Amino acid sequence: MESLSAWFDRELFGDGGGAGPVVVTVIGSGGKTSLIWRLARYFACKPRGVLVTTTTKMFPPPETELLPGISVAGRLNQQTGKLEALPIEELAERITAYDLTLIEGDGSRGLPLKGWTDYEPAVPPFTTITAGILPLWPLGKPVSAGLIHRLPLFCALTGAEIGDALKIEHLVKVIAGEKKCLFTAALGRKILFLNQIEDEGSASQAEKLAALLPGDFHACCGIIAGSVRQDCIVF
Q: Does the model's pTM come out above 0.90?
């Protein structure tokens, strides 16, 4: 079984890298920050290192994440304790000093699912890869504000009603629906990562979801399923 980190290594740098730095903006819900720090640790050995930042808000990393080769950029809000986005012009200049920039470009208030407003996600124009992340463990659970950020927008996107059991068909619309969805604002190459796939049951659900996605989505987006926690992919 291939590691998640090794898969991203091939995807980001397998051809020797293109012209200019690699900029990955991570969007969605259910593991964005964990994925960013997993990749930051793996790529910290790059000659020019890794920059971690945000176009929204994120908590500063614990000291254990601040390895040599990893830099963090943002404005610290003393009241919230979160890092906030730098001006886009300043960020565009900073990324040129690094082999890889990892950007947290979405927020879900710690919930596993969400709906998107017009200004979300915040994907900067110099993004070379947009990685959309989504967990499947909420399947079968009631659609509710305790599970979903911006619940009314989620219901409008998916057709679900409050109290309904969450279905794979709802998540298909989250990923590739006709209204504002996960990849509407994506730039560069697109990767769908189904996260927290750690047993045969969840792997089967991931395969079923992938099969239900429209053909044109498969044509423009790489699809993988696996686990940030276990650093593995199942397909």
A: yes
- Whether 169 is in a domain gets the answer no
Domain at 68, CATH number: 3.40.50
Evaluate whether residue 159 is within a structural domain: no
Yes or no: say if 67 and 41 are a contact pair by the CB < 8 Å rule: yes
Q: How many domains are there within the chain?
A: 1
The pairing of strands 129-135 and 22-28 is parallel
pLDDT in tens, 178-196: 889 999 999 999 999 999 9
Per the CB < 8 A criterion, the answer to whether 65 and 93 are in contact is no
What range does the domain containing 28 cover? 4-12+21-135+182-233
Q: Is the peptide bond before 121 cis (omega within 30 degrees of 0)?
A: yes
Whether residue 147 is contained in a domain is answered as no
Amino acid 171 reads L
Residue at 84 is within a domain = yes
- pLDDT tens digit sequence for 78-93: 999 899 999 999 999 9
